[in-house]
Design goal:
Distance between the termini: 57 Å
Shape: globular
Length: about 575
């Protein structure tokens, strides 16, 4: 099958996939998955996506095996003596033969497969060797993308390769290839497909690496990576606006960035206008597409339109029954949507479904279910037939490891659940609202004044009850500080900034009295910095955010806060100082 036909057939498969015809898409791609690089890439990508969603070990093994076969298929089309494994070996040191069109596409497809295989390798098991293997594959993939980007742009200079004479000779040869390709690109549709592949790879790498805290990014840049956010966004936007096969993946990555990544690992500021504009043409083309409906619902969640989002998620669930994993994504969003409304019984129903059906993080799901039940009156809890203490005691045994490391959110859940481990359990204070904060949910619910006011009432009621208890337990000050942080978040989003500042300062002043929840001090310091940013007190904002970064170590959710600090300092146009 020639390149043009392969691209056309893969476009058909992608359309089937977005119309919920997942099996049909696989059946279309399977016959040529060992003879066509694009069929191999498409077929393995769907199976890798399925593995990532199910988290079933069997699916992960199938995904890895299929991706290994896809790499072998792509390898057959790569230039034998011009293996683009690093920038310095972009072209043969011996030969002046030019890369053919097919060989250029083989490099892009190989890099894409390598990146996906690396991502699955990270979650395959606890073996640290797999973590290192995954890292090496990512580096190789990045170098191929970077080489292809240079090939596409013609930006070959001795400085860019820190080159030897052989490198410079290679540069001239690559420039000839580029000229040949660009001369024919007006009549050669496949050039735009190659260009789309480069935009997807370079855009994704730069955007994702730009999220990393400064000290990690500097280390990665030292070994040849780059993390330029603006370049990443620009490349993905160009790819999304094009007509290549990669337009949809570019759009989906941008949607993921605007609707999840910038919220969880950033300051909570999302570009929803761009997200809506990206999604609109796909809503028209695939009105019943489950993935498209899911993002439509997610955008409504972020806008505070919880009621509309809930209807969209139900429509998404009804749209297909083949990939139940997409249902699980909807359950997670519905659980939070009802939590924002403090409709705890409905939130419990979806937390319960996640516990029963999804394998992604049993520890988080069980903790979340128990946390939601804690928000209900005892009589309502009885109607569910659940035992809150028993649920919390399950959490530690459900903890998992990825690449040999525990998941930070699970570690926090395990630590909090230990309050129920002894013969005399100590009740957690508003645990569902604490998890809401951890997932940056206050920046979402904060768009709704009515619901934020309701949350404030709940927090103040709990605060009064806690202070009125005759005997204070060892967790008393930790619980008081948690309530002050959450109260400050509500007040901030209600525009009562001075009162919010007083709440945050109370936590900072009490930090030496914290016994267990030592994450509260640095997180509050960071929130105080954001509060000053909102009041245009730039220098004060920077001082507090830098203090959150530099003055605290070894606390729960530390890496997540460092991601947020990095994003906050970037938004203040600050070059982050090295961490001591």
């Amino acid at each position: 099958m020639d390149l043009k036909c392969a691209l056309e057939e893969c476009t058909m498969a992608l359309n089937l996939f977005l119309n919920n015809k997942f099996s049909e898409a696989l059946e279309l791609l399977r016959p040529w998955s060992k003879g066509s690089m694009y069929h191999a890439l498409g077929y393995s990508t769907i199976l890798v996506m399925q593995a990532a969603l199910t988290f079933e070990q069997q699916d992960i093994q199938i995904g890895l095996a299929t991706m290994k076969e896809a790499l072998q298929t792509c390898q057959k089309f790569r230039k034998r003596n011009t293996v683009v494994e690093s920038l310095s070996s972009l072209v043969s040191k011996q030969s002046s033969e030019q890369l053919s069109e097919e060989e250029m596409h083989a490099e892009i497809c190989y890099a894409e497969c390598l990146l996906q295989k690396a991502a699955l390798t990270f979650v395959q098991d606890e073996n640290m060797v797999n973590f290192i293997k995954g890292g090496l594959k990512i580096r190789t993939s990045y170098q191929i993308y970077k080489a292809c980007s240079l090939l596409k742009r013609g930006c070959f200079g001795a400085a860019s390769l820190r080159g030897t004479k052989e490198d410079c000779r290679g540069i001239r040869e690559c420039h000839q290839v580029l000229q040949m390709t660009q001369d024919s690109k007006s009549t050669n549709e496949t050039y735009y497909q190659f260009e789309g592949g480069v935009q997807l790879g370079i855009g994704t790498f730069n955007l994702m690496l730009s999220l990393l805290p400064g000290r990690i990014l500097r280390l990665l840049e030292f070994i040849g990576f780059s993390g330029n956010r603006e370049l990443g966004l620009q490349q993905l936007r160009e790819g999304a606006s094009g007509a290549s096969l990669r337009a949809i993946p570019c759009s989906l990555i941008l949607l993921q960035y605007h609707t999840y990544i910038s919220l969880i690992l950033g300051t909570g500021e999302s570009n929803l206008l761009e997200a809506e504009a990206l999604l609109q043409p796909y809503l028209q083309k695939f009105p019943k597409g489950a993935l498209i409906l899911f993002y439509d619902g997610r955008i409504d969640i972020l806008k505070g339109n919880f009621e509309k989002a809930q209807m969209t998620f139900q429509e998404c669930i009804a749209a297909q029954q083949e990939w139940k994993q997409i249902h699980h994504l909807c359950y997670w969003e519905l659980m939070w949507g009802y939590s924002f409304q403090q409709n705890w019984l409905q939130a419990y129903q979806y937390a319960d479904l996640l516990c029963k059906e999804s394998r992604w993080s049993k520890a988080i799901y069980v903790f979340q279910k128990a946390a939601i039940l804690c928000m209900l009156p005892d009589d309502d809890v009885k109607t569910t037939g659940e035992n809150i203490v028993a649920l919390f005691r399950q959490v530690e045994g459900l903890k998992q490891r990825i690449a040999g490391k525990s998941i930070p959110t699970e570690k926090l859940a395990v630590r909090k659940a230990r309050r129920y481990a002894g013969s005399q359990p100590v009740k957690l204070v508003v645990p569902a609202l604490e998890m809401m904060y951890i997932w940056n949910g206050f920046s979402i619910v904060g768009k709704r004044t009515d619901l934020t006011e309701n949350l404030l009432v709940t927090i103040e009621k709990e605060e009064t009850a806690l202070k009125n208890e005759p005997n204070h337990n060892e967790y008393y000050m930790d619980d008081i500080c948690l309530l002050q942080l959450l109260k400050g978040m509500c007040l901030k989003h209600l525009g009562r900034l001075l009162q919010a500042e007083l709440c945050f300062n109370q936590v900072i002043q009490s930090e030496k009295q914290l016994k267990y929840d030592n994450y509260l001090a640095p997180y509050t310091m960071y929130e105080l910095g954001l509060l000053y940013k909102e009041q245009d007190e730039r220098e004060k904002a920077i001082r507090f955010i830098e203090a959150a970064k530099n003055n605290y170590k070894e606390y729960s959710m530390e890496s997540r806060l460092h991601f947020r600090i990095h994003a906050a300092l970037n938004s203040l146009k600050v070059t982050p100082a090295p961490t001591p």
